[in-house]
Amino acid sequence: MKDLHIYNSLSGEKEKFIPLEEGFVGMYVCGPTVYSNVHLGNVRTFMSFDMVFRYLKHLGYTVRYVRNITDAGHLENDADSGEDRISKKANLEKIEPMEVVQRYTVDFHQTLNDFNFLPPSIEPTATGHIIEQIETIKEIIKNGFAYEVNGSVYFDVLKFNETKDYGKLSKRNIEDLIHNTRTLDGQSDKKNPQDFALWKKAEKYHIMRWPSPWSDGFPGWHLECTAMSTKYLGKKFDIHGGGMDLKFPHHECEIAQSEASHGNDPVNVWMHANMLTLNGQKMAKSTGNNILPYEFFTGKSKHLSKKYSASVVRFFILQAHYRSVLDFSDKALLASEKGYNKLMDAVNTLSAIKASNKTSDFDIMVWIEDCYKAMNDDFNSPILIAELFRIVKFINQINDQQATISPQDLALISKHIKEFVFDILGLKTEISSVTRFEGKLKETVDLLISMRKEARANKDFEMSDKIRDSLKEIGIQLKDGKDGTIFTIEN
Ligand SMILES: [Zn+2]
Predict the structure, then answer these.
(1) Do 338 and 367 meet the contact criterion of CB atoms below 8 Å apart?
(2) How far is the CA of 124 from the centre of ligand 1 (A)?
(3) Confidence band (pLDDT; 50, 70, 90) for 368?
(4) Considering only the top CATH level, what class is 277-424?
(5) pTM to 2 decimals?
(6) What distance in angstroms lies between residue 368's CA and the mean position of ligand 1's atoms?
(7) Where in the chain do CATH 3.40.50.620 domains reside?
(8) In whole angstroms, what is the distance from residue 345 CA to residue 333 CA?
(9) Which CATH superfamily is domain 17-273 in?
(10) pLDDT tens track for 369-379
């Protein structure tokens, strides 16, 4: 099997993946700020890393996957100004900040569960790690890369850049950053506009506050990820992921904080998932060009013509590579739904087909290798899905008695198709067209199938064709195989 290669945002190249410790992978992914319902862009980002997590486990690695919950410190403006997002929501709704956190953490978990995500190994919170964050600040101050002004502590970007490289991940150079940032208006305590807060002194009205050596206050947003990734994965770990929008300043600041506190460049491979658009436009609540994840399940959105199952949405998202921009549209979802049903019908058909003594009309070993090749090439799920449709075609040919398969190859296909479809892509069968069509309706179709069989036994081909054609007209397709007739349903 070919080695796994991952595109590293830091080097800008696909690199052969070599874990720091053989057999083990440490992966950190920046989680949500829980002040509103999780949006679809987040779902895509976390789904990309859910697939990465699943594939690494499939390859036999023991993976420690840490994904945090930001429940304090994320200000409205990423440049350390504005209110804390959670406090603001709490003020608006006249509830405790921790009620906001609880409500949207539950929503986040529920949504990810709907989309069949595996839970991470550890899900730490910013408020649960205030002590670790204070200790990290102390280290950074001790090493001369931070300064205190009026109870707040700022990271000294210019000082850091004298000996290190600030901007190496986002490929920005400090001169351009200085040039492009507006000068301070005298309201800020920062020495330079590029500096960022490690600790902010809380204003009187600010509810979420903790004691520290500098003031009663709260940690800067970037700090929690450095403190928690170091605590659970060590000073250097294998993979750090997040949405593309976090590359700067958030991830750049994480690197700087780690290097300034413990001297290590913290991450081996940086991975960034690309963004989503809706009908070719950026998604934004303010313009109404927006779908919330749960709206797929109700179909109640002006952007949707019907409801979609979570697996169809998941399948749709994974049909694009995680580093490409993905455009949602109802039309594209409808096409994906067809593809998804076709795939699930083939998985169902597979359990009914019989092997023969003849050799297979398909090189299964090459197919398996091609599937792995796709995933080993920077988790290329669209190519994997294309490979799955190659085998779908073959399965349907066997079922139509136009191709043969040996017993060994049949066992190999069954094993691998299940691993790729369910374990790695994380799809579910429960909404496959046939299983969705359960109960009395399924019994009715089965009854018609047996009546058609009887008609054929009596050589009443007019009747048997009538049953087949009438069912086809209403979108129910009968397929005759060696073990009898099965049916699939079009949408
Ligand atoms: Zn982070």
Answers:
(1) no
(2) 12
(3) very high
(4) mainly alpha
(5) 0.87
(6) 36
(7) 17-273
(8) 18
(9) HUPs (3.40.50.620)
(10) 999 999 999 99
